[in-house]
Amino acid sequence: MKLLIAALAVLTLISVPFATDALGQPALLSLATRIIIYAIAAASLNFILGYGGMISFGHAAFFGVGAYTVGILASHAGGDPLFGFIPGTKQMLITLPAALLVSGLFAALIGALSLRTGGVQFIMITLAFAQMLFFFFVSLTPYGGEDGIIIRRTNDLFALNMRDKTTLYYVILAIGAVFFTLLWRVVNSSFGAVLKGIRQNERRMAALGFVPYRYKLYAFVLAGMGAGLAGALMANFLRFASPDMMHWTKSGEFMIMVILGGVGSFFGPIFGAAAFLTLETFLAGWSEHWQLAMGGILLVVVLWTKGGIAGLIAKLGGHGK
Amino acid sequence: MILLIEQLLNGLQYGVMLFLLAAGLTLIFGIMGVINLAHGSLFMVGAYAGTYVAGITGSFWIGLPAALLAAAVTGFLVEALVIRRLYARDHLDQVLATFALILIFNQLITLIFGRQPVFTLLPDAFSGSVELLPGLPYPTYRLLIIATGLLVAGGLYLLINRTRVGMLVRAGASNRDMVRALGVDIRLLYTVVFGLGALLAGLAGYMTGPISSVQVGMGEQILLATFVVVVVGGVGSIKGAFVAGIGLGVIDTMLRAFLPGMLRQVMAPSDADAIGLGIASMGIYLLMALVLLVRPRGLFAAGA
Amino acid sequence: MSVLQVTKLMKRFGGLTATDDVSLKVEEGEIHAFIGPNGAGKSTLINQLCGELAPDSGRIHLGGRDITRLPVPARVALGLGRTFQVTNLLDDATCRENIAMAVQAREGLNFRIWDAVAGRQGLWDQADNLLAGTGLADRSHTPVHDLSHGERKQLELLIVLAQKPRILLLDEPMAGLGHVESQEMITRLREIGTYTPMLLVEHDMDAVFALATRVSVLVYGRIIASGTVDDIRDNADVREAYLGAEDELC
Description:
The structure holds 3 protein chains of 3 kinds. Chain A is an all-alpha fold. Chain A is built from 13 helices and 2 strands. Chain B has one domain (2-294): ABC transporter involved in vitamin B12 uptake, BtuC. Chain B has helices spanning 2-32, 39-57, 60-81, 91-113, 140-162, 164-174, 176-181, 186-208, 218-233, 238-263, 269-294, and strands spanning 129-133, 136-139. A two-stranded antiparallel ribbon of chain B has the order 1-2. In chain B, a hairpin with a 2-residue loop joins strand 1 (129-133) and strand 2 (136-139). At the A-C interface, helix 7, helix 8 and helix 9 of A face helix 2 and helix 3 of C.
């Protein structure tokens, strides 16, 4: 049954460009692309938050770092090397791994410090570090500062025409599919099991002989890399990277997507990203004060519902908790 | 030298504002165990309500109680309608619910007052400057803020350390469950604490108005620095909020004032300004990182 | 060389001395029981031995090795296993999963992100083996939050056994158990005691007299008497400490 639903979902995603052409709604393709990118980011947050129990309010930092990696490398392509020895590039085969590496490094640094704390402190500290990075990139005037950096062309990938929106959509869809497949493996791996245990009862896990800090840090770095990947894809899609991508309100958006979709559920982040972006598009078209409605909806969801969209689906399917 | 003292005083003034916000926030965290992102909204509400009333009455001093009242009422409503439902919930729910409140408050204020910054009023008696030292004229209003802040700090110290309510607050900060077990009406204590925090935030918002801008989102800007103060000072500690607030306020102000200038000695002016300002903005966060390396729970962390 | 040796352990909380110059040993083949009135500091002692609480002074040696400054997981790696007085389990996981996690901890290879934990047959076989023949055998796929108190206590024991520890620290394993469950637990513990030394903190005197090869009495953080079951039963100081509870000792 689950396989059927998955197949249907994949088919839907593949047919989006055809549907948008048929309906004459090019904005739909853009929405779908952004949904996939944000789903990756939200899923990476869900990994540490839903599976690992770490409430990080600074996840957008890695999203932004991934985006800037692409942007900065692009700006150096064909010109002076970065720091004098790193050549710029517009090759996606290089920029994506680079984004993973850089965001992973930042996650390792921030995580190493932040994970020494817990509870409200951890939330505030991750928030603070992300904002620190925001200020840092705002001050980087050689790379656009507050206004951000324009990426004149989407990265090249093999001989594909990356300027074509449909091609780009399929590339991002494919990368998304690979990401979620890898995420599935990680969640069901030995490491995934330990992480889930730590969320449930850290004291018990320590009494079994696990050192929680190490596992949490490893998860934090992996999640940071996921967000970095999403950021790199976003930079390619928007052909733009700016400090706003790592603003704490962006972190808040990721968290909203996670809770809308269902914290700790595997497909939740996909539902959450879709719901949030669709809602945002719909509400923004209705009123300039759409955030009021968004806030209201969020409040209702948090206070009076449980399990998000994924939980709702499970209940309807008859096997809810 | 003159400049140094001037910036020191500016830092003290900023620090005192941070303290007012951090004190409320740290009590709410420490005693109620609730992370409240909407604290900045109370700051904003105090600023807007007070400034509006001051504007139509033409008097700064009438605006002040209006600000406090508005903040207190808003705080009371928020506590009764939202925060109360969050005591038993996990931190994620608290973060998201109060984040929703930020969105709601920001839009409500925009609806009522529009997007333009609001014109503010200085009290006549304090609109000039006084010559503290030869060659150092300093705005009396800023001195008023410093004085207010120190007075409140003193008042809080007396409240926390010399009254029965204060004793409950201290007990609650180190062991919430025990206070409950002692039969104290915890709901009332929570409401009082939240109300106190709201008053402090509203006061800070209103007093800050004339020297910065009263606009939508003003709460969030200072809220982040407030978080750093709470983390560095130690969750649940008023003393920590004071020491960290003043300390970080001074450091932040001094960095912003002097770092670009210092960097100009070694690099081009435009670069120096941008980088200097950038590092200065990051200053308090880097300091927080340092403190956490040595004391993960902050300088004066209270109990459990 | 004792399996566990504690030397002059001290712990103060402000004006209260919770652990007062405690020295003890647990040898191979011993079931060393700790008894004492409420508030005597038994939990504080266990927490210091396990590593959750740092003593102010004194030393703890496990198999001759100084573990005083080691954190909890490090002590576990050296062979220390404990159960909790108030059961501390992975609530959303099943009995089987809880035990498998303990095996997983011991076997390592836990930073792998590409394997499938469900495929680590060794973990699941060992869990099933431990469950077989116990009262939990047909509850193995039940999540912990659906288990009764007695079942959780049983599970705590199975989990610590899965760790294959050198020494067991049991914090009131009988707490909250009914009569039949208690008898079963005593039988189980006696059997385990034949191959693993134990330090047992207990209130239940039946259990203590049935199991212990050695008894130490803790009062106000201090050991006032230590000896065989009979020694303790006849000890005047102990009787005085349990004033009014004489029928418990008889």
